[in-house]
Design a protein that fits this description.
The protein is mainly α. Helix content is about 50%, strand content about 5%. The protein has a 5-stranded parallel β-sheet with strand order 3-2-1-4-5, with helices on both faces. Helix 16 (about 375-385) crosses helix 18 (about 405-420). It starts with a helix and ends in a 12-residue tail after the last helix. Bound molecules: flavin-adenine dinucleotide, ligand DLZ and iron/sulfur cluster (SF4).
Length: about 525
């Protein structure tokens, strides 16, 4: 009998493709398909991921494999500890091809450029047809984004977002106008955290036997990676992820909008959904989540500013950064428009700094493998921008430390959104802010060693002089930017003595930054 008739189709499913109706599984019959899942060393070690991130991915992969088997699929699952582990996706597909002699390989395009490069070599490597399918879990394909981007001078998220609203029909009136009359209610989503913040706690999921086994494996093999496993409570199955989503819609969506930009010491989740890990793994469908949010608005259970804000994050930002990533890779990895070369300070890993805001964000990152958006952007990111930290070291840090971090979503946020390393393709101006912003949007400053109202010298919040140091050193580039230019008249009016005080104070801060020891993010 020719091989085509008796051999199966091999369907490799990557660690962030844990979706039952993944394009490569969809429409296949169980008796002539082998689903291949691979725990591989290269993925686990190309950066030294936070321990919770590895545990989450392996546990979710193992649960997904078990779920597929229960549903009657043949799953070939390669464990990390398999003595013959080939270390790479390509190596494991080669081994599986020997085991199963497939008549074809069918795979969904990878989330990350690095992995996709490897997959694109498969047709030449294997002696059967290789079909690489579009990842239809995204609303906009890579090609659609490219088309949208091609003839535009500026690629603003807001314009793309409106296209996505029209495409999905979310929060749209029948006449093509946005529900409520406005496309974007971000102005209403900046309530400072005043008074008692009573955010309900998100559900944490008790590790089961599979997760405990994985946690032990991670402790054994990756025990010296950054982060703690003590608080591990991420959803690792679709059922758990749905329970987490239920809790968000019932208890937190209502105030999600108001407090989207708020920060409170020791309050790590506030009204955020905490669903990014599940969405990025493929356990939850972002479009379904948006539809649920829209239904909550229609049923009068959540206000428009919350619902629009949530939908904008998912069909706006999330889709936009993914398109942006593929449009500008691989250059995005090495962009450094602001010529920033300062090494990442050690306190990004240890949290040992007198800056109370930074210390709290690093603590949450270490304990939870999570920090919420405004902490990533306006505290950790803002400091990296103002201090002129090396983009590649900052990128590595963000990729390592967050359980939801995959390069396609991390890199545009880091290189383009926080560091302006792309020279302004994503953001119309750098997200630079002094201590005032953090003071307004958080309770951090009240008990900090520094004061946001002291601008220079003794006791000054480091963000204050660093802000002016940043503006001063990038004047040539930024002065002509209409959204920033007028800041320079304030600077010029200060007079030379005040300016010198700012610059000297900033230099003092910069001189105290101790570079991170080698080996936190890469290497042993
Ligand atoms: P919520 O605040 O509840 O938001 C809802 C959802 O919107 C999120 O789950 C996420 O899927 C999506 N979302 C919101 N903002 C963004 C954004 N800027 N880009 C893409 N999706 C977004 N998100 C990641 O998933 N992985 C990352 O590696 C990542 N790195 C980031 C790095 C920096 C410097 C910044 C500023 C943001 C980064 N984000 C990243 C975006 C955002 O911080 C997280 O998605 C969010 O904090 C996850 O928590 P949540 O699920 O409670 O989000
Ligand atoms: C992040 C990660 C890790 C740590 N380990 C694995 C793994 O062993 N096997 C796997 O399939 N995926 C892993 N991942 C996620 C991959 O890096 C992810 O699938 C890529 O982003 C795909 O582009
Ligand atoms: Fe952060 Fe400055 Fe506020 Fe201290 S004073 S918490 S360093 S913003």
């Amino acid at each position: 009998m020719p091989r085509e008739n008796r051999s199966p189709v091999l369907v490799p499913v990557l660690g962030d493709q844990l979706t039952r109706d993944l394009a490569s599984i969809w429409g296949r019959t169980k008796d002539d398909t082998v689903i291949l899942m691979m725990e591989v060393w290269d993925e686990a070690t190309y950066v030294r991921h936070h321990k919770q991130k590895i545990a989450l991915i392996f546990s979710a992969m193992r649960h997904f494999a078990a779920e597929l088997r229960d549903a009657g699929w043949q799953v070939d699952y390669v464990r990390l500890t398999d003595p013959d582990n080939a270390h790479s996706f390509t190596g494991e597909v080669a081994r599986a091809a020997e085991r199963h002699e497939p008549r074809a390989i069918r795979v969904v395009e990878a989330g990350e450029w690095r992995v996709q490069q490897a997959i694109e070599e498969w047709p030449d490597k294997f002696d059967c047809p290789v079909e690489i399918l579009t990842d239809d879990r995204f609303i906009s394909s890579i090609g659609e984004f490219r088309e949208w981007a091609e003839d535009r001078k500026t690629l603003r998220m807001e314009h793309f977002y409106r296209e996505m609203r029209r495409k999905t029909g979310l929060l749209m009136e029948p006449d093509g106008k946005p529900v409520g009359g406005e496309w974007n209610y971000d102005q209403q989503n900046r309530k400072p955290p005043k008074g008692e913040m009573d955010a309900p706690e998100r559900p944490l999921f008790e590790p089961d036997a599979i997760t405990n086994e994985v946690i032990a494996l991670v402790e054994e093999k990756f025990g010296d990676h950054f982060g703690s496993l003590d608080n591990f409570g991420w959803p690792v199955t679709r059922e758990e992820a749905e329970l987490a989503a239920d809790a968000f819609f019932e208890e937190r969506l209502g105030k999600f909008g108001d407090y989207q930009d708020a920060m409170v010491h020791g309050e790590d989740d506030l009204w955020h959904s905490m669903l990014s890990t599940s969405i990025n793994l493929g356990l939850l469908d972002p479009l379904e989540l948006c539809q649920r949010a829209e239904a909550a608005f229609k049923d009068g259970k959540a206000p428009l500013n919350s619902v629009e804000g949530f939908i904008r994050q998912l069909i706006g930002w999330r889709e936009y950064v993914r398109g942006f990533y593929w449009h500008f890779m691989p250059g995005l990895q090495t962009d450094n428009a602001l010529d920033a070369h300062r090494p990442l300070p050690e306190f990004y890993w240890t949290g040992e700094t007198e800056m109370r805001c930074m210390a709290d964000c690093v603590r949450s990152t270490r304990d939870n493998a999570h920090a919420h958006h405004i902490q990533r952007l306006m505290v950790l990111g803002n400091f990296a921008l103002l201090a002129g930290l090396d983009p590649q070291q900052v990128q590595d840090w963000y990729l390592v430390v967050y359980a939801d971090a995959y390069e396609w979503v991390e890199l545009p946020n880091v290189a383009a959104m926080i560091l302006y390393a792309d020279g302004g393709k994503l953001a119309s101006k750098p997200y630079a802010a002094s201590g005032n912003y953090i003071n307004k949007m958080s309770d951090y400053c009240k008990e900090c060693t520094y004061s946001p109202s002291i601008k220079t010298c003794e006791g000054a919040c480091p963000f204050n002089p660093l802000y002016w140091h940043f503006m001063h050193r990038h004047r040539d580039r930024l002065e002509s930017n209409p959204r920033i230019g007028r800041i320079y008249s304030t600077w010029d009016r200060m007079g030379e003595q005040k300016q010198a005080e700012y610059l000297d104070s900033a230099q003092e801060v910069l001189d105290t930054l101790e570079p991170a020891g080698k080996g936190w993010a890469r290497g042993q």
